[in-house]
Write a structure and sequence with these properties.
Layout (H helix, E strand, L loop, with lengths): L1 H24 L2 H10 L6 H4 L12 H12 L18 H6 L5 H19 L3 E8 L19 E7 L7 E9 L11 H24 L2 E8 L6 H18 L3 H25 L19
Parallel strand pairs: 3-4
Antiparallel strand pairs: 1-2, 2-3
Helix pairs in contact: 6-9, 8-9
């Protein structure tokens, strides 16, 4: 009932206020860790049913590592030095570009978004769609003028019938040293603003479409515009497939949470050096 829903909301708000007062008295690092863990969607993986076909299954070591990441515990058996030469830690492993895990994490979320857009019934879904050339159009100097610029996901019908929509993904690690002095809210706003400066004007003026930055953190939170996007997708999925809005929203958050989490776990223990081998095309199979 409405009365029951109101009482639950009031109880939740009291709990959050109580937790906030406790956090104010704790160590700044602990305060930040708790703040990241109570973001919407950050904890869903803990209670998810382990459906292997959806990618919701974790091994024993992966689950242990995920809990250690969540609470910033020291992860055992990690090399003391990264293969890039810098001191290793879980925070460094999630930020180090060597090995291509940051790109893999980005691509997993990109593909997941495209799949969700198709599931929501959106038309013309594409990944890595090339943008029209800028030509002599006077874009701001902060905009991306590259002739080969691409958008992560393109679709039609997201915000309006046959309206072209362009989505571009960014995933950042809030535990990186350069981010630790900034509040979580400011980090989300900065990341969104950077994406808009690069692509917003170009998409609106040249492509005549809408631009949505899809900003997520490695801890499982999402930026405000990404949250709005997910809510819109959830409403469309619920309407198309006969689910409730809550069920659709939970499914979307789970898919994205595991898409980020699984690559984060792989990057902790995965190799960061290329394996040198003889290309198969150079092997004479008659000698085998």
């Amino acid at each position: 009932s409405n009365t029951g829903g109101y009482m639950i909301k009031q109880w939740y708000q009291r709990r959050v206020r109580g937790l906030s007062s406790v956090l104010q008295e704790e160590h700044p690092t602990l305060k930040r860790t708790f703040a990241l863990n109570i973001e919407k969607g950050a904890s869903l993986w803990l209670s998810a049913k382990p459906y292997k076909w959806l990618g919701f299954e974790l091994s024993r070591q992966e689950f242990t590592d995920a809990v250690a990441l969540r609470y910033e515990f020291v992860i055992p058996d990690l090399p003391s030095t990264c293969q890039c030469g810098k001191p290793n830690s879980s925070s460094h492993a999630l930020s180090c570009p060597l090995g291509g895990y940051s790109i893999l994490r980005h691509n997993e979320v990109r593909d997941c978004l495209a799949e969700l857009a198709q599931h929501a019934g959106l038309k013309g879904v594409e990944i890595e769609r090339q943008l029209l050339p800028v030509g002599d159009f006077p874009l701001p100097h902060t905009a991306n003028h590259a002739p080969d610029a691409r958008m992560d996901v393109y679709c039609m019908g997201l915000w309006g019938p046959l309206q072209k929509s362009y989505l571009d993904v960014r995933i950042f690690h809030p535990g990186a040293p350069s981010y630790r002095s900034k509040s979580i809210g400011n980090l989300y706003r900065e990341q969104e603003a950077q994406k808009k400066r690069s692509y917003g004007k170009r998409i609106i003026e040249i492509e005549r479409g809408t631009f949505s930055p899809v900003v997520l953190s490695t801890s499982g939170g999402v930026a405000p515009e990404c949250d709005r996007l997910l809510r819109t997708l959830a409403a469309k999925i619920a309407s198309k497939h006969g689910n409730s809005y809550r069920e659709a929203m939970e499914f979307i958050r789970l898919r994205l949470r595991f898409a980020v989490l699984r690559v984060c776990l792989i990057s902790l223990r995965g190799t960061r050096i290329k394996v040198h081998h003889t290309p198969v095309g150079l092997v004479d199979l008659n000698l085998l």
